[in-house]
Amino acid sequence: MKEKIVNGMQIFAKAIIFPVLFLPIVGIIIALSSILSNPAIVGGNQFLINLGNFISSGLWPIMNNLGIIFCVGIAMGMAKEKKAEAALLGLFSFLVYLGANNQWLNITGRLVKYKVPSDLYGTGQTVILGFQVVDMGVFLGLILGVIVAVFHNKYCNKEFKGALSFYGNTKFAFIVLVPVLLILSILFSYVWPVIAIGIKALTNFINVAGYFGVFVYGFLNRVLIPTGLHHLIWTPFSYSNIGGELMVNGKTYFGAYNIFLAQLADPSIQVFDISAKYLQYGMVKMFGLVGVALAFYKTAKPKNKEKVKALLVPATVTSVLVGITEPLEFTFLFVAPVLWFVHSALDGIFEVILVALGGRTYAAGGLIDFLAYNLPAGIGRTKWPIFIAVGAVQLVVYYFVFKFLIKKFNFKTPGREEDKVKLYSKKDYKNKKSKNLEDKNTLDIASLIVDGLGGPKNIETVNNCFSRLRVKVIDTEKVDEESLKDTGSSGVIKNGENIQVIYGPKVSNIRNKVDKYLNKIDQEE
């Protein structure tokens, strides 16, 4: 049972990242457009102000309709095959639910009267795509997306004979889903208000917990990275009312990230809302891990320092610039798990310090995000100099703590191995790859990865997140971790049938190559 639960969480965490991958792009464009629409920056230039408002208006419908985005994205992400049809099924299902839920509220006389949508704030109802329904926030999309994926995977290949053949496959999955959606539209109208009370209580508890709550949030957000379940921590805080709710310009925004973006577009707000305390996990990416890298270099054996530098520099730059930390973090996760626990605890502590000193910044994507989001907002609203000051202290603390622990317990971090540095530099990787290619003739990087995963017939699904190739395999015993590391991976994680291969920012390119290679094999067969 435990393995099934963990496996299910892994599949969900893998699927939820599908739509999340696009949201940082949306956020950055909105943040940059706020520069143009801010009179304090462009003065009275009405053309630039209108242009900024025009750009942001084109992007905000995405952030304001995350329910349907998550529904479609999760349905597609969890689908084992026919992903495009699963996405369309998700869209149909979301619309069916909206119409049915609205009509049930109407039939039972429970529709709250309003003049403008903002009047519904606090009533438990909202307007989505023109339908007045029970307000479930992004949870509606999360729940429906999972349900659609389950029914799609079960019935998408169901076939009938004769005249009924038209109603088979994914169309049959939709037929089965319709009564389920109708029942859910009724059920949620009674059950969700009770659940909403529980969510509100959880939010209140976290807020009452104060700095301890921030520490726990920061600690879990970091310590769960090896499992891939950290998405289940920061996602609800960023996009649902668990992370706070605030009315800006007559419209209510839910989730720390959405609230941050809404405040960017309103120059009248002097200091950003406290909900930004859930957005401070970017500091360690720009500062703390730099201290870790310096400690690794300092404690490496003299003969290995150049090789360690070749390993650490690109990994550190990746962390600082774009906030992808796994290539650096996985250099010590497996050889010294104690350091990982210390790393997670320190991150939580420094997030508390930053929040206590008034930090309201956002830099989840590293330096690029820091510049795009915080500079346009101004010092007064985000207090970003505090972020830099605390980050500088964090860098120093990380350096000395890691250096002390590595020497005290003789951890075999990069450059301290008895025989050689086990993690390869870029040059070593190219040489290794060339040798493999010579030995295997026409095989390319995708074929090496597929072989390392046990071959094409051992692979059930292939996806990716920001930095990891996420694969579900049939037989984990066939997975060759060393072969996967030889393809440039900085680590391999096994969670039941779910395999995560860490590649960093290049993972999207690698996933495309693997997909093309597998499609080619399918066509040949």
From TrEMBL:
CDD domains: PTS_IIB_glc. The active site is at C465 (phosphocysteine intermediate). It is found in: Cell membrane. Residues 3-418 form the PTS EIIC type-1 domain. NCBIfam families: EIIB_glc (TIGR00826). This is PTS transporter subunit EIIC. The keyword Calcium does not apply. It comes from the Bacteria. InterPro entries: Glu_permease_IIB, PTrfase_EIIB_Cys, PTS_EIIC, PTS_EIIC_1, PTS_Glucose_EIICBA, PTS_IIB_1.
